[in-house]
Amino acid sequence: MDSSAPIPVPSGTPEGTPRLRDRLTIPVLASGGILMAVMQTVVVPLLPDLPRLTGASAAAVSWTVTATLLSGAVLTPVLGRAGDMYGKRRVLIAALMLMTAGSVLCALSSDIGVLIAARALQGAAASVVPLSISILRDELPPERRGSAVALMSSTVGIGAALGLPLAAVVVQYADWHTMFWLTGALGALGVSATWWAVKESPVREPGRFDLLGALGLAVALVCLLLGVSQGGQWGWGSPRILGLFAATVVVLALWWWQQLRAERPLVDLRLVTRPRVGLSHVAALLTGFAFYANSLVTAQLVQAPKATGYGLGLSIVSTGLCLLPGGVTMLLLSPLSARISAARGPRVTLALGAAVIACGYAVRITDSRDLWMIILGATVVASGTTLAYSALPTLILRAVPAGQTASANGVNVLMRTVGQAVSSAAVAAVLVHHSSPLAGVPVPTLHGYLLAFGMAGAVALVACAAALSIPGDAPSGDTRRAREAPDATPAARDGALEGA
After folding, report:
1. Strand, helix or coil for residue 324
2. Phi-psi region for residue 485, left (φ > 0), alpha (ψ -120 to 50) or beta?
3. pTM value?
């Protein structure tokens, strides 16, 4: 087996004077992560008008969001594994090309079927962040790696905060296809910049791709996320939803059995079951749940009519601007997150982030009527999310061999996605249950919003407890040297990881 240690930088290359392409690696990768998050967000302002614009039903239009969620969840671990095997830069460029092709298709068509298929293509971009983090691990020296990974992790929130007001302005003042032409152009620029500025990682995990494992995981995830996302619409007790959840359990059990027996599994379950890795995935699931409720509830709360007694009746553009301070804060806090992780360890950073998220929801419960308090609470939650999301990939980097970085981070991002999907369903269920009629239309009550905040805050506290229970996040010097040594064999690195 080829050594999966990074090739050292030639001694003739001065460390203080990197080439222009080397200088641009981090900005190019970060811009790809921001673009991915923008792409996922831009369709949100369109949802109320898409039935009229496409001649489709509201149920059909909702699939423009669901399709991206499903394809992203399925493709993230698959493309992460492919990156470990065939080259992370190569797979990253392919994911960006699929995202760009989806934008162009959306720009060219008003047919709902084409739009859904195009949005499914765009879901491939969900793998951009884990692939980029893996490239950063392979290419950067240790002293630069922490801050770069923290910035890369923050791009998810930064892009989401930028995407909503951007899309709202385009929808309000231009033809809606313009938005997709814009994201398509940015995607093409991102592909070109990545091809030029990002070097192919020398770290590989050779072997045959586990096609059966990929298909099994895809079926299980589609059943799970389809059931979670459509449960409110189809009925949680309906045969379709119960059948999907039953199929999820059966397929996951068979997939687990197959993965344990595969020579080169898609997901190394023996690695996942180690406490340092498994608990990091649990924390990612819980943090994804807690974080996502902030965007969902804030957008609905400030747009609620003033006749409700608590709503502010803001426009979509104004709503996006309310979330913008959180995105700016995430950008500014990412270096702080890296410094905390370097000084205290990523486990402490993750726990601190989850605790800050809970504090943000406490602010939301205290006052959700005044605009400045709403913005303050949302920004505090975003700040905690920055700390938590920046620490998660660092925990994974310290706990897995270099040859499995992309696939392990892909699973971690997948757990965040599942958490966000469950959060969306749970928040929707709470708000539907606590609503009252206004002009003949059911509108969530303030009590319902406060319950949603309380639920998300409680989950954040559980995430904090999970983070604190992660063992040994600061490896010893011997372990670190064994893991980073250029001539270390995979067996030696795995042994070092077991002892950490």
Report:
1. helix
2. beta
3. 0.82
